[in-house]
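Re-run with default settings, no changes from the original entry. Doing this only to confirm the output is reproducible before filing.
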Amino acid sequence: MSTKREHEDKTVFVAGGSSGINLGIALGFARAGARVGILSRNQEKIDAAVRAIKNVGSGAAVGFSADVRNPEEVKAALRSTYEAHGAIDVLVSGAAGNFPAMAQDLSPNGFKAVVDIDLLGSFNVLHGGFEFLRKPGASIINISAPQAINPMVAQIHVCAAKAGVDMLTRVLAMEWGPYGIRVNSIIPGPIDATEGMRRLAPTPEALAAVTDSVPLGRLGQVEDVAAAALMLSSRQAEFITGAVVPVDGGWSLGGDRVAAAAILAGLARANPSIRD
């Protein structure tokens, strides 16, 4: 059952939408006929992303330079999108920060930086967007991570932050359900040609090992995550809320341990005191 054209004339806002998975989601909704707003920090990336979104869609695309850690900047971008294109039908919160670090080597500021971007940033996007959402009928999608459900060495900051994002999803599904707003999370697995994969599998050997660890036998594509976002925001999913949906080829069933081993090996090369 296709959801391709049912997003025509909808307004979609993607926080973090200038690159990677989030840009793929923005492009997917644009191809389906939606009006798209994006938010990111880098103006050059925003401009390039807006051009790409306009090229594949209806031409209705706007971009804003803002930091998800700043609630006033986030709300201003959401308000501008609302004023330009009407009530927001789909709100995607996908801004994220990550770097590998063992807990004993991670500074409080480093831990805080990731939590502020991933968790506080998600709260700012959802809280700031509430008044501009279509009620009833809006769909919110948080972009989570495998670290939210499976512990991973050198990822204590991300594990804590993304687990918090999934709890935001569940709580807001309960609180905002009466308004007719659905809230779900997507957990992308190893997605090819993304910054996340470059950090977690930085060598050809590590990338091959991760690929082999996926039960479906391949890396994911950004289009796989975009397809899930379109489905979760479609009529076919109108009774789904509070769900945390892996889009990972089965990787979170155990294959993510390979990425943990690759991270640990990379850190050990940089710091011989670390042993795998």
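The two ends are 47 Å apart (CA to CA). The mean pLDDT is 91.
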